[in-house]
Design brief:
The structure holds two protein chains of two kinds. By secondary structure, chain A is of the alpha/beta class. Chain A has three domains: about 160 residues, P-loop containing nucleotide triphosphate hydrolases (Rossmann fold); about 60 residues; about 425 residues, no CATH class. Chain A has a seven-stranded mixed sheet with strand order 2-3-4-1-5-6-8, with helices on both faces. In chain A, strands 7-9 form a two-stranded antiparallel sheet. In chain A, strand 5, helix 3 and strand 6 form a beta-alpha-beta unit. In chain A, helix 23 packs across helix 24. The longest helix of chain A has about 35 residues. Chain B contains two helices and five strands, in the order βαβββαβ. Chain B has one domain: Ferrous iron transport protein A (FeoA) (SH3 type barrels, Roll). Chain B starts with 10 loop residues before the first strand and ends with a strand. The longest helix of chain B has 8 residues. Classes of the chains: A alpha/beta, B alpha+beta. At the A-B interface, helix 3, helix 11, helix 16 and strand 10 of A face helix 1 and strand 4 of B.
Chain lengths: ~675, ~70
């Protein structure tokens, strides 16, 4: 018979490390339904019958964040056979706050007292046996980073799961409050039932989610008791309960923890922090770290050496070259055996589809090696600390800075980086606006228009203004989404600044690998399918294979071009460009090259680099409408790879489609304004 | 005095934690409850948020949030 063990703990307590150690990194990563919160499960590497479920890191089981609601729903509703509560021994007071709440559920629990090596090296002592006796749960000292104590931990967890050993009922509250809780549980049904007891505590805490589950017949009685409790607590029973829990913990810590006398001494982490968030040095250091992050992933002139690609670009180049050779060989082979033109085209487009996915993997890999390092080392929290002042004005967290910065390189890894944000709301908004940052693939479009239509103007200013437009629209978009789409949620910035720690190589590698795998598998299908679909539409019509000018896509372009009339470019070729741009934005240039006069591949390369103009496009575009077209393609749905990344991170089609709808509407409105205002001025 | 008005290096005892609601609960969940010792460590480079030490760990919060926390400076 299989048993399920859930891992619960604060953020930064070593929960992910523990999870990786006990599952051996063979794990399944997905999303909890409807939210951008990561769901991970795996099996115990020494016993395949033990399923390990990683709950989101939380400080409490209160109902105020997606993470907290998921963690408590999982514990209370799905009732795992046991909960392993990981406690950071170096930060025991605050960590035990969650422990008390886990114990309140009366589910068989084991406390894993983590980071015991650090506790010992500080000269502190934790009396695990005594703590275990008071709480009525096994307390196992461990060091998750090196695996110390994990066998004992798992033995204890499996044992409490099998014997259904319940934690003690603790005397946390005073008599009056306990009596009220008991009375509320009594109204709910049997007061000895653990679920009723837990619900009763939550009801006295004014928990609205639990209050909504109380049947109407019992509501008046419950409300009366809760109101009385609130009155006794000076209007706020919730705060009183939190206070009682911490008072209880203070007593517990006094009894079970011996702090060494050198407690006042500064540890290395504090010294490091004095430099990294120093009033004067913090911003320059931050800029350098962000530069390294960006340059290692995207730079074409790494370390300022012209032509030297960054590790990310170099790897991407290698993958592209190898894939190109392979693709050429396969297509050559297909032609050699006399396959028909459409079969060769199909094979080639399928390989394109896979290549489109593979080409992004190196960027994702390199960025996430660095991101996991920043996250695990504790610096990511400081990024938020340093940038909060700026980003709060847009209703976002300081951590949104990283996805938005990376967006200038490529939206795909940038969108995936939004996972490091603290709240579900921030993650969603950041994902919706990150594609507005003009990525590298959009630059060739601007260059084509700049060299063709803006010869007599300041071309640099034209291109630069498009980049600025993206930033401004992103900020306005964030403000609007905050005000209208997510208005119920207030943002706060009450955040732990964890100690700096040197990340283990293993955990950095596992995290980067998870990201690469997640993108390849979950985003890959979206990218592959849409690439092949667009190939089909652009090379077929009802009578079979044809040139793009006569394809379904051309008919489609003709059919929809009126939509774009208000934007100033009601031309089927322009509409087709928008669609082929979804495969990859730079495709717009190749499409235009083909549709406006059939220029050669070399010429397309030159146009992309801004070295050559494409005069034929001035038949359709004026300066104003060209600007409107550039703005539309900057802001509209990003390429399929980025959509795949949004789907992977949002974890739901509903939110993916909402994001796309938001981007399409934004693009339309902005391009419309540009066309109207532009024609008034020029 | 509120936590917002305290200077880096100053410490004191929390006497009350602001108005009710999600924010108050969150502050209390993080261990800032009446009676606890709290010390201001530093202010962020751009002047906000601030970093405090409470219950043996570092917590950061915005000045607006700190303004709701009353402290008896020692």
């Amino acid at each position: 018979m299989s048993i399920t063990i859930a891992l619960a703990g604060n953020p930064n307590c070593g929960k992910t490390t523990l999870f990786n150690e006990i599952t051996g990194a063979r794990q399944h990563v997905g999303n909890w339904p409807g939210v951008t919160v990561e769901k991970k499960d795996g099996v115990y590497k020494k016993d395949k019958n033990v399923v390990i479920l990683d709950l989101p890191g939380t400080y409490s089981l209160s109902p105020y964040s997606a993470e907290e609601i998921i963690a408590r729903d999982c514990i209370v509703k799905e009732r795992p056979d046991a909960v392993i509560n990981i406690v950071d021994g170096t930060n025991i007071e605050r960590n035990l706050y969650l422990t008390l709440q886990v114990i309140e559920t009366r589910i068989p629990t084991v406390v894993a007292m983590n980071m015991m090596d650090e506790v010992e090296s500080r000269g502190d002592k934790i009396d695990c046996a005594r703590l275990s006796k008071i709480l009525g749960v096994p307390v196992v000292p461990i060091v998750a980073r090196n695996g110390r104590g994990l066998d004992d931990l798992m033995k204890a967890a499996i044992s409490v799961a099998n014997t259904k050993q319940k934690p003690n009922q603790l005397d946390v509250f005073d008599k009056g409050l306990s009596d009220t809780i008991h009375a509320v549980a009594d109204v709910l049904g049997n007061a000895d039932n653990e679920e009723n007891q837990w619900k009763a505590i939550k009801l006295v805490e004014n928990d609205e989610i639990i209050a909504a589950t109380v049947p109407d017949s019992k509501k008046p009685a419950v409300d009366a008791l809760v109101q009385a409790a609130n009155k006794n607590a000076g209007g706020d029973a919730e705060a009183q309960i939190a206070d009682y829990r911490y008072q209880y913990i203070s007593k517990l810590v006094k009894e079970c923890v011996k702090k060494s006398l050198k407690g006042g001494q500064e540890i290395t982490s504090d010294k490091l922090d004095k430099i990294l968030t120093n009033r004067i040095l913090a911003l320059p250091i931050f800029a350098v770290i962000m530069y390294i992050l960006f340059a290692c992933t995207f730079s074409e002139n790494f370390l300022f050496i012209p032509g030297l690609p960054s590790p990310g670009q170099w790897l991407a180049g290698v993958v592209e070259t190898v894939w190109g050779i392979f693709q050429e060989a396969v297509v050559g082979l297909a032609e050699g055996i006399g396959a028909s033109e459409w079969a060769v085209g199909l094979v080639s487009s399928c390989l394109d589809g896979i290549g489109a996915v593979a080409g992004f993997l190196p960027l994702v890999l390199v960025l996430f090696l660095l991101m996991s390092f920043l996250e695990d080392s504790g610096y990511m929290a400081r990024v938020a600390f340093v940038m909060d002042r700026i980003f709060r004005h847009f209703g976002l967290s300081g951590r949104s800075f990283i996805p938005m910065l990376m967006g200038f390189g490529c939206s795909v890894p940038a969108l995936m980086a939004s996972r490091t944000l603290e709240s579900d709301k921030d993650r969603k908004i950041t994902m919706m606006i990150t594609p507005f940052m003009s990525c590298g693939a959009k630059l060739p479009i601007y260059l084509m228009f700049a060299t063709t239509l803006f010869v007599d103007s300041n071309q640099t200013l034209v291109v630069f203004s498009i980049y600025m437009l993206g930033i401004v629209v992103a900020i306005i978009g964030a403000l609007l989404l905050n005000k209208f789409a997510f208005k119920a949620e207030t943002s706060n910035f009450i955040m732990e600044l964890p100690q700096y720690r040197i990340p283990t190589l293993k955990s950095v590698l596992i995290h980067a690998w998870e990201k690469v795998k997640g993108f390849a598998v979950k985003a890959g299908t979206v990218i592959f399918a849409s690439t092949v679909l667009i190939w089909f539409l652009s090379s077929f019509n009802l009578s079979g294979m044809c040139d793009m000018e006569e394809s379904f896509l051309a008919s489609f372009g003709n059919a929809i071009k009126w939509i774009f009339a208000p934007l100033g470019w009601a031309d089927w070729r322009a509409s087709v460009g928008v669609v082929t741009g979804w495969i990859a934005k730079e495709n717009i240039v190749a499409t235009f090259g083909q549709l406006f006069g059939g220029v050669s591949d070399e010429a397309v390369e030159a146009i992309m680099a801004g070295e050559e103009a494409l005069p034929a496009i001035s038949e359709v575009f004026t300066k104003v409408t060209a600007y409107s077209y550039m703005a539309f393609n900057l802001l509209c749905m990003p390429c399929f790879a980025a959509v795949g990344a949004i789907k992977r991170e949002m974890g739901s089609w509903k939110w993916t489609l909402r994001a796309i709808a938001f981007q399409m509407c934004t693009a339309y409105v902005v391009a419309l304004l540009i066309n109207i205002v532009g024609n008034l001025i020029f | 005095m509120t936590l917002r008005e305290m200077k880096p290096g100053q410490q004191g005892k929390v006497t009350s934690v602001g108005s009710a609601g999600a924010m108050k609960r969150r502050i209390m969940d993080m261990g800032v409850t009446p009676g606890v010792e709290i010390k201001v460590i530093k202010v962020a480079p751009l002047g906000d948020p601030i970093e405090v030490n409470v219950r043996g760990y570092e917590l950061s919060l915005r000045k607006d949030e700190a303004a709701q926390i009353e402290v008896q400076v020692s």
